[in-house]
Fold this protein.
Amino acid sequence: MAFAWFALAVLGAASSGDERAPERARPEFDLEVRPILADRCFPCHGPDAGSRKAKLRLDVRDEALAPRSGAAHAIVAGDVAASELVARIRAESPDDVMPPPDSGRKPLSEAEKATLERWIASGAEYAPHWAFVPPKLDEPPAVADAGWCRDELDRWVLAELERRGLAPSPEADRETWLRRVSFDLTGLPPSPVEVAEFVADARSDAYERVVDRLLASPRYAERMAADWLDLARYADTYGYQADAERRVWPYRDWVIRAFDEDLPYDRFATWQLAGDLVRAAAPAETPRDAELATAFNRLHRQTNEGGSTEEEFRVEYVADRVHTFGTAFLGLTTECARCHDHKYDPLPQRDYYGLFAYFDDGDESGLYSYFTSATPTPTLRLTTPEQESRLAELAREVAQAEARVEGLAAEREGDFQAWLASGASWSPSGPIARYPLDGYAQDGSLANAVDPAKPGATLERPKLVEGRVGGALEFSGDDNASFPGVAEFEHTDPFSFALWLWTPEPKPRAIVLKRSRAWSDAGSQGYELLLDDTRVAWSLIHFWPGNAISIRTRARLEPRRWTHVAVTYDGSARANGLAIYVDGARAEVEVVRDELWKPITGGEPGALTLAERFRDVGFAGGRVDELCVFDRCLTALEIARLVAPVESPAGDAPNVALGDIGVDALRETWLACVDEPARAAREALRAARKRQAEELARVEEIMTMRDRPTPRTAYVLKRGRYDQPDTSQPVEPHVPAALGGADGLPPNRLGLARWLVAPSNPLFGRVAVNRLWAQCFGHGLVATRENFGVQGEAPSHPELLDALAVRFAEDGWSTKRFLRRLVLSATYRQSSRAREELTALDPENRLLARGSVRRLSAEEMRDQALCASGLLVERVGGPSVKPWQPPGIWEIGWGGTYTPDTGEGLHRRSLYTYWRRTAPPPNMLLFDASKREVCVARRSTTNTPLQALVLFDDPQFVECARSLAAVALRESGDRDARVERVFRGLATRAPEPAERAALAALFESELASYRADPAAAERLLAGASDLAGLAHDELAALTLVASTVLASDASQTRR
Amino acid sequence: MPLDPRVLSRRHFLRGTAGSLGALALAELATAGAVSSGVARVEPPRRAKARRVIYLFQSGGPSQLETFDYKPVLNARNGEPLPDSVRQGQRLTGMSGNQSLLPLAGSQFRFAQHGCSRQWVSELFPRTAGVVDELCFVKSLHTEAINHDPAITFLCTGSEIAGRPSMGAWLSYGLGSPNRNLPAFVVLVTKKGADQPLYARLWGSGFLPSEHQGVQFLAGKEPVLYLANPDGVSATARRRQLDALGELAKAQHAREGDDEILARLAQAEMAFRMQTSVPEVTDLSDEPDEVFELYGADARTPGTYAANCLLARRLAERGVRFVQLFHPGWDHHGDLPASMRNLARETDQASAALIVDLKRRGLLDDTLVVWGGEFGRTNYSQGKLTSDNYGRDHHPRCFTAWLAGAGVNAGTSFGETDEFGYNIARDPVHVHDFHATLLHLLGVDHTALTFRYQGRDFRLTDVAGRVVHELLS
């Protein structure tokens, strides 16, 4: 008996779900034939050229039916006997039979073989996969009982029922319907008052009023956001090893805002994919939110584990974006095609990298910073309106101060000429520190010729060698010299360095000088002078690459020759405020980066250091001599004088003829070194920049998308590996050919978004309406919400799905109006009570002959308890909160200690609960919350003993039970009324007599027990506030009643 | 239609798995009596050698060169640079990759051959050396990731990408639990400061139903989260609550006609039983003194590795399918000699005691014990090599694990690394192969244990994996 039952179930689930329909002489290819071919044949005879056997391809009709030289004809249309395919599926010998016994594929059943034969006999017609053909709107079918229908959609449902001789279920009672619609639209139960009002509402539009009230509530937007955040893999931490905190809740709040305002779904998608490009194209009409929405693409996990390869993880991030895009918007699984052509769907590997190329161009690093809290670039500034106006004012002040400095040259020309006429002598202020590097002092320090109190120190004492002037240091690559207390510059300070440099060979990369905690472990925050491809690179960095200024010489240094290198910076936070001088001459440079607006001094950058940085490439074999530090931006003339020092000791006059230097250079130097008003103007400018920088440092940011000026070239990656690009196969951004091209659209994310939301896109609308359908009916019309591909399940009502998709677009992609239709339909209003005749026929309720039943989600379960007990704090948005959780959960990770909030944070909706990826709240995981590490389109629903333990024993739920009991005690003096109040609060209906009796008996037994042991009652109530006026024994007893109801089916489900 | 929750649950089981469990499990299922809540309560097929696994996971990457892979050449050439001919341009981590010198570092610990099988063990592991004839070493394990997070995720789930089911979850899903009152998959983490974090993902259920996720047993008065009644609620009160809950379920079932209501009640009843069975198994006080002497004094301190080894034996006795211990602390980038001494002290005696204890109770015959980490360590020193100190960086190209117990070729060693302990010289065993072999020992064909998710049949071994028959007795 058991076996027969089970074989039937297997058949039903494995095939298209249409087993009950009468057998067709001409099987429908898309619904009946392709699923068989896809499952058993395509892995070796399908779209993936790499794994194709016998050069036979069965997914394309022309190839499947083509005569084959030297091999039997696979399919001969209309001729079963001549078709080798039939011979092979009927073969007895394990060597011949298909699929081969050792393939791991299930053998074909007799019914499946017969289907294939009938298909060949009837002409072996192919049809494109239903989901890749744009949806079309058919006339709703005629139905016998038209009066039953409340919405167009009901006609399709009813027609299918009538075809099978089934009747729909009667209407659910009003309480049940209200609980159902309240959870489906807001994730919270109705209050007892709302129930009473609705039950008593005799108006003809009572249902419509409820729905409109719910849709207008901010609760609706919060509930919608909770689902979307699973797809967006939203979390408050980065994931991976250290799993540090990141501040991305402004994205979550945007999602809430978008649903609250009913942002059309096409725009909702477009903004998330390409809001930055939308805004760049139309800045005036596009709100900042459009750009904020692109954080969607940055919510993947990120790592900062020491020693990781930056590019390896950057590629992972891009791949995650493709995967998320595919699942969330197309309902397609793309991951397989990262390594090889997709085995089932028409997604060749090349098309995968076509999608990849759209998401590959951000100015980003594959690693976030371990030592600083810098936001990984690119970012969006989340300035408040007050900050905007203050920053505008500060920018004006900086501009004025800059203009003042600029204007001085002309204004002060008279004084300059007088100075020239007087002989042009000056006493330059020298370096603030000078290290001859000629030898070590007794204590091992390196002498500072300017300020002996601040000598240099070393790590592992670099070797002393002959230098440019006296001795010099030669570094091993692991040792270093550092100079504390002399060069702790901010990005608003002008400063300069000068030194002599000798490199033993061309260097792909070498640290010459830096003040910075680390390379990628700190996003390179600080300043640094590098050899990069043997060129001199000079940079100030908040987070590399997106928040930095950097220039690099075009010429390479000559190895094995002492070269003088000086670098200057004027405090402007602009790349043109940086300069590099080689052997005294200003070097021609390229600008590598030009956006710096946050500090460069975070992450404990330590001292100015030569030749080594944590986990960076040291200056192995490199030599440095005569290091000078200046707290000014040196002029060209001053630098020239450093290279060829004057003979006269005081340096009180230029050592070359005026004619050689030029008046302009002298003027520049006079303004920089001599003229007092110029000095004062520069000081004023520095102060203005400092005020501006301090304000900017307070501006919050969020990771978003912004493409680099020059796109990366994407390649097909062999086996999906970051280090194996197939450089013979560069890939332009493009969409999969099988889904229609994106001709005429720009090859960027905006083009991708436009292609996505166009009416010709076969998947976008269907996937969306299916998800909304599942929200209201428990499962989608396509049960595999996450997969509309060939291996997904066929829709139960294909024409209805299409009609909904077309209507959704026609109606301006309004999610609220769409949901309103669904929940006001007759289909939705049916009772969910089990019907004997349906139990065997349609156990999954795919035919919709009754209402749906589902267990509440993790969020709903907790939110219902908080809401029913009056504890829920309803505040929309803001930073995530930390309700109580058992101690020790975070401690196995690196997250330190979880400290629960006090006050409001304990009782906010679960959507706001702080989500730490490596250690999520356990009570939510136990109720099947997704882990938020990757995009998830459908949660599983399980039923485990640990769930009962949460409902009975989790202090959060105990607190709710106690508060609900207190409410009931206060509202009524009558035992039965109190029990009823508790039950109604959680079940949204009156208890049945048996339920009432059981709970009353429980109350009495517990009351007696607590009366006998009052101390036990006190322990149960410990920590509770507002017990005033309540009998503790009664409260304790009623708490156990409430806790029992909480754990009951009536509370755990919405029916 | 009988209102038997088990029948109903079978439907649930099939909903997720129809056509994907393969002939093995389907055939077994057809004859199996009970199926509970998404779990196929199937005994491993008759050909299974092992009925359960205790996996002693050494997290952080224990050095193969200080434990079981003896490389005297490294001592002879101590301090010489790693030859390019050995490294062969293979990638290093960014932690030592930019060092100007990669000096070979010989182990500071003496090695000797032990037992009848004459296998090499370092002096740090005398107790392990004492049971060496029970062990089957795999010295040629290799993996793909070079950083902890991807590597440990790969070892525990068969994929570097998060979101895949863990080994134990696959077994729970495939074989179910023979014990009605304990979970199929129990996780025990040593209570100590961790150099590398451990995450719920490592014992997560991925896309399998979440009931298959590992249940962590914690040291302390509440061994499973939410297990204890609230203060002030007695066991008898809870019993009365459950009786009332039963009445509610009956009424609700009469109202709605949905069998799921009864299944939910059955789970609440099992929760009630767990409230007794879990404290019973985690309370070690009924163990005699000689057992504590065997496992070491640490075993008296809850949450230590030794206490967890002892607890693992108790769980195995009660039929728990998969017990996974995690012992962190093996990430020895620097100060390796001192750290290795500590780690050996924390783990050696109890690991060996577990083998001895299982054996004398007859449990080693059908229990598989595994010892190992997520990758090995470099043969060169990370940081400065001095006369008495060095460190070792991550090394995915070879590492050592051992197996013991059911179906394992005891007293042998399989696979060889080159004389530098850097590359594999013979018989490489990839992580997928290792997983395939583990499943094989449990009677499960790794290609048949699949789950369809997003249109694809996933398995622990992805599209690879070879059963390493040489490891099997």
